[in-house]
């Protein structure tokens, strides 16, 4: 390592003590032993357990170990080096991309991010308020077939708010798409897929309602499309680092979640069978089958306990108690593993 402080004779010469005829570094001793081991092991970085991370990193920088050694240090600590962000080559595209994608790049980018958050919140609040009984008559009318259809006119304030929000979402998505450095990466990004899903139902509902009127099937499709609007709440994750970290935690813990669901499925079948056979001879029992017992076992294992289904026999109560205990253990054990994957 000729470019480091210890490897470069010129750099280390200023630490030469002529009185004792030795090099003297007034630095942290335990960290120095680990840094010296890097030379002896040809680049193996291993931080002593008793040395804090920030202190060891400070010592690495003092001894000028270089970016490669520091990167190896971060990897040994379980940190991944963030990928270098791709930027458009065109100057105008770069400015637009930074404006829409990096809120901390300028004051205008912060204002754009604030407007986006405000529009998303307004859309979600409007979606919730229009289902209130006081506003439902304003938002819905009766069709010729007796089916309830949604009113689409500018006199309806909810429809006007929806159109304004859709205009903002569409312009935002188009600007981001036109200025992005890689179109394929943009289209496969999870956050961009959410942005598309947030606006697509509005245009689909306009086309569908005009081409398939007075049909029960068309109204069912429109209800499903309106339900998809609730996914707009995930657009807030673009502006929240905490939500993005939570999503990455779930992604890193997908195997643990699958294992948890597998254990819950096994326990669901076992305890449903047990409580069914325990209660099948009881008068007016609600445990009429094993599938009918799934609900009781599910709410018991998750410690919700609605109380709509309760065993009455002694053996049934024993099964219910064991189900509750196993449920607590099953749900609690994977938590440390999931937290460690953050």
TrEMBL record:
Compartments, record wording: Membrane
List, alphabetically, the InterPro entries matched: Ion_trans_dom, K_chnl_volt-dep_Kv, K_chnl_volt-dep_Kv1, SKP1/BTB/POZ_sf, T1-type_BTB, VG_K_chnl, Volt_channel_dom_sf
GO terms of biological process kind: action potential; protein homooligomerization
Domain named Potassium channel tetramerisation-type BTB is located at 1-72
Residue ranges annotated as transmembrane are 107-127, 158-178, 190-209, 257-278, 290-306, 318-339
Main localization, broad class: membrane
- The keyword NADP is assigned to this record: no
Ion transport domain residues are 110-340
Q: Which Gene3D superfamilies match?
A: 1.10.287.70, Potassium Channel Kv1.1, Chain A (3.30.710.10), Voltage-gated potassium channels. Chain C (1.20.120.350)
Q: Which superkingdom, per the lineage?
A: Eukaryota
Pfam families from the entry?
BTB_2 (PF02214), Ion_trans (PF00520)
Q: Tell me a GO cellular component.
A: voltage-gated potassium channel complex
Q: How does it sit in the membrane?
A: Multi-pass membrane protein
Q: What GO MF annotations does this protein's record show?
A: delayed rectifier potassium channel activity
UniProt KW keywords: Ion channel, Ion transport, Membrane, Potassium, Potassium channel, Potassium transport, Transmembrane, Transmembrane helix, Transport, Voltage-gated channel
Q: SUPFAM superfamilies recorded for this chain?
A: POZ domain, Voltage-gated potassium channels
- Annotated protein name in UniProt: BTB domain-containing protein
Q: Which organism is it from?
A: Enterobius vermicularis (Human pinworm)
């Amino acid at each position: 390592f000729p470019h480091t402080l210890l490897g470069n004779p010129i750099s280390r010469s200023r630490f030469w003590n002529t009185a004792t005829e030795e090099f003297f570094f007034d630095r942290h001793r335990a960290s120095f032993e680990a840094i010296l081991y890097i030379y002896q092991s040809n680049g193996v970085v291993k931080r002593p357990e008793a040395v804090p991370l920030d202190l060891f990193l400070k010592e690495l920088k003092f001894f000028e170990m270089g970016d490669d050694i520091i990167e190896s240090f971060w990897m040994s600590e379980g940190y991944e080096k963030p990928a270098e962000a791709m930027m458009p080559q065109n100057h105008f595209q770069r400015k637009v991309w930074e404006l829409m994608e990096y809120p901390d790049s300028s004051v205008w980018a912060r204002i754009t991010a604030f407007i986006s958050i405000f529009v998303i919140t307004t859309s979600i609040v409007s979606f919730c308020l229009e289902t209130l009984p006081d506003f439902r008559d304003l938002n819905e009318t009766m069709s010729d077939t007796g089916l309830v259809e949604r009113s689409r006119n500018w006199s309806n304030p909810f429809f006007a708010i929806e159109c304004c929000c859709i205009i903002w979402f569409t312009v935002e998505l188009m600007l981001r798409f036109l200025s992005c450095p890689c179109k394929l990466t943009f289209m496969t990004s999870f956050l961009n897929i959410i942005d598309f899903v947030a606006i697509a139902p509005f245009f689909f509902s306009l086309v569908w309602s005009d081409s398939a009127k007075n049909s029960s099937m068309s109204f069912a499709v429109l209800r499903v499309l309106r339900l998809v609007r609730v996914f707009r709440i995930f657009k807030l994750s673009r502006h929240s680092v905490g939500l993005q970290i939570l999503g990455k935690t779930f992604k890193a813990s997908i195997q643990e979640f699958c294992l948890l669901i597998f254990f819950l499925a096994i326990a669901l079948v076992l305890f449903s069978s047990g409580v069914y056979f325990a209660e099948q001879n009881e008068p007016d029992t609600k445990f009429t089958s094993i599938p009918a017992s799934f609900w009781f076992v599910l709410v018991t294992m998750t410690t919700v306990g609605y109380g709509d289904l309760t065993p009455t026999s002694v053996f049934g109560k024993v099964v219910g108690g064991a189900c509750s205990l196993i449920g607590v253990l099953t749900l609690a054990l994977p938590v440390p593993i999931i937290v460690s994957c953050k």
